[in-house]
Amino acid sequence: MNHNRLKKKTYVIIPALNPPQDFYRYLSDLNHVENMHLIVVNDGSGEEYQPLFSKIKSLSKCRVLDHKENWGKGAALKTAFAFLRTDGEEDVQIVCADCDGQHKVQDIICVAKESGLHPGTLILGTRRFSKGNIPWKSKLGNRVSSLLLYLTGGVWVGDTQTGLRAFHCSLLLPLLSIPGQRFEYEMEVLSYCMEHQYPIHMIDIETVYENNNKNTHFRPIQDSFQVLGVVMKPVLKFLCSSFGCGILDLVLFTIIYRCANGNLYMPNARAVLIATVWARTCSVALNYYINRNYVFSGGEKLKKAGIHWAKRYLALCAAITLSSASGVYFFHSLFPISAGMAKIAVDCILFLASYQIQRKWVFSKREVSYEV
Question: What number is the average pLDDT over the span 256-270?
Answer without folding.
Answer: 74
